[in-house]
Amino acid sequence: MIKNKDIQIRDPFVFTDVNSGKYYLFGSTDKNIWGKGVGFDYYVGKDLEHWEGPFQAFRPNERFFSEDNFWAPEVHEYQGKYYMFATFMSKQSRIRGTAILVADKLTGPYQPHSNGPVTPNDWQCLDGTLYVDQDGIPWMIFCHEWVQVGDGEICAIQLANDLKESVGEPQKLFNASNAPWPTSFQHERFPNQKNYVTDGPYIYQTNDNDLLLLWASFVDNVYAQGIARSLTGKITGPWEHEKIPIYQQDGGHGMIFKTFEGKSILTLHAPNKTPNERPIFIDIVEQDGKLIVQK
């Protein structure tokens, strides 16, 4: 068994599997996370502290379109199969985007499903996540990166029902600077403007059916986890931002899942420094329509 303190992982994603009564922890697991990609691993446990693994979830073959920047895998059950949304950098174009993999079992092995990224071909993108709306229409929420646009964006694009490709044009939900809490930084690529990061969007529906969007950015160069709320209950918004982050101790790229006992848990990685990043699990409750961290 291995404990959380011994697991180097970024962008943790937990799948609560009622069939096995176990939690499956996926994430960016390459030791050299900023370089050549090995693939994605997962861990299996019953108490969110002790895990078995790592086990292989995905390994690319020589024909795969990417060989580095394997980031932020999420696994979603959809129409009887398991789909992994993950970020990859193209060998040819050197553009990052989210592609979709598929498996018959939660444990994989995952194989390419989409024909490369389903994000726009000329956009630098990352961190795609699945959301199926009240009409059963699948959407992908993703980041249009600050490295291309300066003021990072969170966008949504409709997917085909088989999740093989996107449909129509992406819609911008908001810029990072629309929220009151992120702070800007200067960069030589955009020397005459303020730059803001958007990372790790994840959709969460409250007990009152409010639609929330978790996403990460920086406060004075410290990684932080924020929350936005759709004023219409629809993925297209408009979105209203919480005034302060729910977590700002150099951790982020979070998601929320339910335990087998019905508790809500926020998981994210902290600190945001390689190779020290570890999975963090935080109890949260809904209070007056907001998510509150349990001390």
TrEMBL record:
GO MF, one annotated term: hydrolase activity, hydrolyzing O-glycosyl compounds
GO biological processes: carbohydrate metabolic process
Keywords: Glycosidase, Hydrolase
Site feature (Important for catalytic activity, responsible for pKa modulation of the active site Glu and correct orientation of both the proton donor and substrate) residues: D127
InterPro entries, per database record: GH43_arabinanases, Glyco_hydro_43, Glyco_hydro_beta-prop_sf
Domain of life: Bacteria
UniProt pathway: Glycan metabolism; L-arabinan degradation
The family this protein is said to belong to: Belongs to the glycosyl hydrolase 43 family.
Protein name: Glycoside hydrolase family 43 protein
